[in-house]
Specification:
Layout (H helix, E strand, L loop, with lengths): L2 E4 L8 H11 L3 H20 L8 E4 L6 E4 L4 E8 L3 E9 L7 H18 L3
Parallel strand pairs: 1-5
Antiparallel strand pairs: 2-3, 3-4, 4-5
């Protein structure tokens, strides 16, 4: 099994964790469906690691770091691999158009750079 961590800023806050807790606490059927998809895809990521492929995951190309996205429709969760077998969940957004939102990818990269700097990884 591959290890999956959740990005936290230097105060210990995590937008991913807060969002997952909101989904978990929600009584809305749609939120529960999304949460079920997320749990399933996280399980696949933990089992397959870097071998995970579409439709579950996709590499976002053309950026400084290799950022990937889990794809529990309609949500997207950006994540990155480090140390060859560990992953960090960075951020999420609801995809509303065909193209991936560049601002969202850049936000995930900013979080990754902060995380790598504080964790002493590269």
């Amino acid at each position: 099994m591959y290890e999956i961590e959740v990005y936290e800023d230097k105060k210990g806050d995590s937008e991913i964790e807060d969002w997952l807790n909101e989904l978990n606490d929600s009584k809305q059927k749609d939120d529960q469906k999304v949460l079920k998809k997320i749990r399933y895809q996280l399980k696949i990521l933990a089992e397959l690691g870097p071998k995970i492929r579409p439709p579950h995951s996709k590499v976002i190309k053309g950026y400084k770091y290799p950022i990937m996205e889990l794809r529990p429709q309609p949500e997207r969760i950006f994540y990155a691999c480090y140390d060859g077998e560990k992953f960090v969940l960075l951020s999420h957004y609801m995809k509303k158009q065909n193209k991936t939102d560049k601002r969202q990818v850049e936000h995930a990269i900013t979080l990754l750079e902060d995380w790598l700097e504080r964790k002493g990884k590269q």
